Amino acid sequence: MASEHERGRVKTMETAFDIIETLVALDGGRISEVASELGLAKSTAHRHLTTLEELEYVVVDDGVYRPGLRFLQIGEQTRTRQEAYELAKEKVTDLAAETEERSQFIVEEYGRGVYVFRDTGQRAVHTDSEIGKRIPIHATAAGKALLATLSDERITEIIDHRGLPALTEHTITDESTLRSELEGIRDRGYSINQQENTIGLRAIGVPVEHGDGTPFGALSVSGPTHRFQGTLFEETLPNLMLGTANELELNIQYS
């Protein structure tokens, strides 16, 4: 018997979003490719793609369908709906300029981290942390910093729903180890990523809260292991990040 949650879902809408996500994964695809990926009849895939094209959510070129730029408009409106997001963007830019490394700001949504802003300094290492990308929240510095601000109940919900998948050999995949790590983050105020998301990359993350103490997001700065070590990694960057987060929280509270 279908659960109450499943009974409330609209199958045609679910299929439409599955098609959009498939087009993203394929970097564009033909009707036959979409149908094959999702196990749909070609006629069903054709109807959905035609409807999405008429609504201007997908574009087609020589038989290849791709998500349209209308999604960019929606995403940008979502990202700028709060003044606090623009304040976070300023700090991301400042961090990238001061450290000459890569900086980013993420929020938690449905148990995953989502990159909202990113900037790169002159020496930044470029990885696949594009805006809007969803990431396992337990495997990044910003994600762990954000997790540390959540209630035990919410953390349990996220672990139960998303699990603790390994991205590298250094990723924390044990719940008790993760919870111990989160306690340490709460004590010192910042998180450390030791190649848990990408081999060869370290990061420092700090949580950012609203004036009432509720979680807003997290900032992080990342760089290669040969630069992120010693006093820079253990003192200079943590102090910089803590100060930046404090300034951002004050700006949010009194803006």
TrEMBL record:
This is IclR family transcriptional regulator. Gene3D superfamilies: 3.30.450.40, Winged helix-like DNA-binding domain superfamily/Winged helix DNA-binding domain. GO terms for molecular function: DNA binding; DNA-binding transcription factor activity. The keyword Transcription applies. Residues 10-69 form the HTH iclR-type domain. InterPro entries: GAF-like_dom_sf, HTH_MetabolicPath_Reg, Tscrpt_reg_IclR_C, Tscrpt_reg_IclR_N, WH-like_DNA-bd_sf, WH_DNA-bd_sf. Residues 70-254 form the IclR-ED domain. SUPFAM superfamilies: GAF domain-like, Winged helix' DNA-binding domain. GO terms for biological process: negative regulation of DNA-templated transcription. It comes from the Archaea. Pfam families: HTH_IclR, IclR_C.
